[in-house]
Amino acid sequence: MQITTLNKSMSFSHETQPFTHHNHSLNQPNNNLRSEIGIWKEGRTSWLREDVWRFAPLYRRAGGIKLLTAYHPKLHLHLTIIERDITNRCGYHRQVFIRNEEANSQQIVLVLHQKPFLGNTKRAMSFYAPESKALVHYSHPHYTTTFVKGMKASAVEYAVGGIHSVWQEDNGHTIVRPLCAESHESVMAVKLNLSSHEETRVDQWMDVSRSMVGSETFINEFLQ
C-alpha cells in the first residue's frame, strides 16, 4: 500500500487515542461506542493501547480523515489504519491494512471490541443480525450499527456481551452469543492467514441512527 500521497496536506499530531480509545467522528459520545483494535496470535491478544506497539504520529486532514501507522516488533506486523467520516451520517469507515513482515506465514485474528464510552448500560441491548452479518447496539434513543468486510478473511466471528464473557483468549474464538439484553459490548474477530510479506485489508463501518429503519438503511447502503 502506498501512503505517501495520503500524508500530503495532513496535519501533524502525536495523538494515537482516536483509534485506540474513541472516535471523534461520533457526535454523541455519551450514547455511542468506541471500537478498540487488537491482534491475537498464539493465545494472546495485543491491543493497540499496549506499550509494545510502535506508532508513527497520527495524521489528520480536512474531511475528517485520520491516518495511523503502527508496528509490533515481536509479531512483525505492520498496521496502517485510515478512518474517514461518512458524509451526511454520524459514523465512520475504517480501513485496517495488515502486513506480515515476517519471513514465515502467520495465522492471526484481528479483534474489534465495541464498548460504550462511559459504561452506561441503562436500557441497553445488543444483538447480531445474521442476514446482514452486522452488530446492532441499542441505547435509548440510539441504534449503533457496525460490520466488517475482509479482502482475505477466512472467517468472521461475532458475539455480543462483555469481552471477558464472549472472547476466548486461549484459542482466539468467540463464544456464540447473538443477543445480550444488558450490554453495549460486542466482539468481531476476523481470521487471517498471511503469507510472508503479504498485506491484506479489513474494512469496518460504524453508524449511529435514531431508529431501526435508519440502521437498516445504513446496512443496505454500505454492505454491498
Give a verbal description of the structure.
It contains 4 helices and 18 strands. It has a single domain (4-222), classed as Glycoside hydrolase, family 65, N-terminal domain (Beta-galactosidase, Chain A, domain 5, Distorted Sandwich). The relative contact order is 0.20. The longest helix has 11 residues, at 212-222. It has helices spanning 4-7, 17-20, 163-166, 212-222; strands at residues 11-13, 33-41, 44-47, 54-55, 58-61, 65-72, 77-85, 90-100, 106-116, 124-129, 134-139, 142-150, 153-160, 167-168, 173-174, 179-180, 186-194, 199-209. The chain is mostly beta strands and 224 residues long. Strands 1, 4, 5, 6, 7, 8, 10, 11, 12, 16 and 18 form an 11-stranded antiparallel sheet that branches. Helix content is 10%, strand content 52%. Keywords: Hydrolase. It comes from Alkalihalophilus pseudofirmus (strain ATCC BAA-2126 / JCM 17055 / OF4). This is Glycoside hydrolase related protein. GO terms for molecular function: hydrolase activity.
List strands and helices in order, with pairings.
Layout: H1 4-7, E1 11-13, H2 17-20, E2 33-41, E3 44-47, E4 54-55, E5 58-61, E6 65-72, E7 77-85, E8 90-100, E9 106-116, E10 124-129, E11 134-139, E12 142-150, E13 153-160, H3 163-166, E14 167-168, E15 173-174, E16 179-180, E17 186-194, E18 199-209, H4 212-222
Antiparallel strand pairs: 1-5, 2-3, 2-9, 4-6, 5-6, 6-7, 7-8, 8-18, 9-17, 10-11, 10-16, 11-12, 12-18, 13-17, 14-15
